[in-house]
Structures are given as C-alpha cells and as structure tokens.
C-alpha cells in the first residue's frame, strides 16, 4: 500500500533506509510508554528487525498468506524533508466481540458480513499511529490517520475501524475525536486485561460519520 496526503507519503517500510529515522520513534520513552507490552529499541539492528517484520507481514497479507484484509504497518514520510516521522497500521482484533466490553454495546452487538459463530469477523480492524515527538503538534498524525481511514473504507471496503488507547493518553483521544470517532467506553479484552478506551469509526453509508 502507498498513498499520498497533502504533506505525507504513507508507504511500505524500507528497513535499511528507514532504520535511523525509525529509531527516533521506537527508542523514545514518550512514544513507547503508550505501546502496551513493548519496550524501546536500543540499536539500529533491533529497529531494522522490527521494520522487517512489518514488511514481511504486509507481504504475507498482500499475497493471501496472512490474516488478510489489508492489515499491516507502514512508514509515514514527511514529503518536504524526505524523512520518516511516524507509522500507521491496521490489524485484526479478534478478541473484542461480545465479552469484556463495558459501555460498548453498539460495538459488541454489531453484526458484520463474514462474522462467524465463534467471535469477531476479521473486519474488526484496529487503526494505530505512532509519531516521533519532534513531529507532535503539527497535525501530521491527524493527516495520516484520515488518509489511512480513507484507504480502509474506500479501497479495502471495511465497514468500520476500531481504535484503542490508554485512558490517560490525551493526545490519542484528542485525535480520535478529530476523526469523528465514537467513544464506546472501555474494553478489557486486549493487552492482558488492562482497561483501555475503545473508539469506532464507521464508513459512510453505515450510519455514522465517515471520511470524506
């Protein structure tokens, strides 16, 4: 997947080329503090390995051997400086459906095309974003998230997107609100049972705010 917004290019990772820029994201405690179960990287070799895993996952999904539905993690490059400043991602969340979602009846009861009897359809996809602190406050994360949502709805034809964050992550919550996402309370079904804020965004035509 590759797409362009006004100031950004969202593209596959290039591990050798992008590793030094990615260090500014994944070695910074201000970023990693919000990524459940992950620790900061401490070397170029580590970050190259992380980026290669992201690239391999996208290739598996694209060729039909992964979880499908266009999931993956992509670099966000700031066009005017030619540097990677962040990451956006899509991934399946199979454990949300029908259990442990407090104050989120709309999500838990939503029937998606392709859902099976044992749980959530793969169409329940989480969107995520991580940006280096030097690029905070300029609207880059919002711009990239809008672009990612447009891709998910218009190209992948997903019916909705989910976003999850720590209840103290005020920046993430503010971005979700700017996207027009609906606050569905808390979920305890991800990341070891920790209570996390749960938001959703439905595609245009699904009865909720979409992406123009």
From TrEMBL:
N-acetyltransferase domain boundaries: 7-182
Listed InterPro entries: Acyl_CoA_acyltransferase (IPR016181), GNAT_dom (IPR000182), N-acetyltransferase (IPR051531)
PANTHER family, sorted: GNAT FAMILY, PUTATIVE (AFU_ORTHOLOGUE AFUA_3G00765)-RELATED-RELATED, N-ACETYLTRANSFERASE DOMAIN-CONTAINING PROTEIN
One Pfam match: Acetyltransf_3
Protein name per its UniProtKB record: N-acetyltransferase domain-containing protein
Superkingdom classification of source: Bacteria
Coiled-coil annotated spans: none
Organism name: Phormidesmis priestleyi
GO molecular function: acyltransferase activity, transferring groups other than amino-acyl groups
């Amino acid at each position: 997947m590759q797409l362009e917004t006004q100031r950004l290019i969202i593209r596959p990772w290039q591990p050798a080329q992008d590793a030094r820029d990615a260090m500014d994201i994944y070695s910074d405690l201000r970023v990693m503090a919000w990524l459940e179960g992950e620790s900061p990287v401490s070397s170029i070799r580590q970050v190259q390995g992380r980026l290669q895993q992201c690239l391999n996952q996208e290739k598996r999904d694209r060729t039909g051997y992964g979880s499908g539905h266009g999931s993956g993690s992509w670099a966000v490059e700031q066009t005017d400086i030619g540097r990677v400043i962040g990451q956006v991602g899509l991934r399946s969340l199979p454990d949300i459906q029908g259990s442990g979602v407090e104050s989120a009846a709309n999500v838990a009861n939503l029937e998606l095309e392709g859902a099976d009897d044992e749980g959530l359809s793969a169409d329940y996809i989480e969107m995520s974003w991580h940006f280096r602190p030097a690029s905070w406050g300029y609207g880059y994360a919002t711009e990239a998230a809008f672009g990612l949502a447009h891709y998910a709805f218009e190209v992948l034809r997903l019916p909705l997107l989910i976003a999850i964050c720590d209840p103290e992550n005020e920046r993430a919550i503010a971005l979700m609100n700017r996207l027009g996402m609906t606050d569905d309370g808390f979920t305890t079904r991800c990341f070891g049972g920790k209570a996390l804020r749960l938001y959703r965004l439905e595609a245009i035509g699904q009865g909720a705010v979409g992406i123009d």
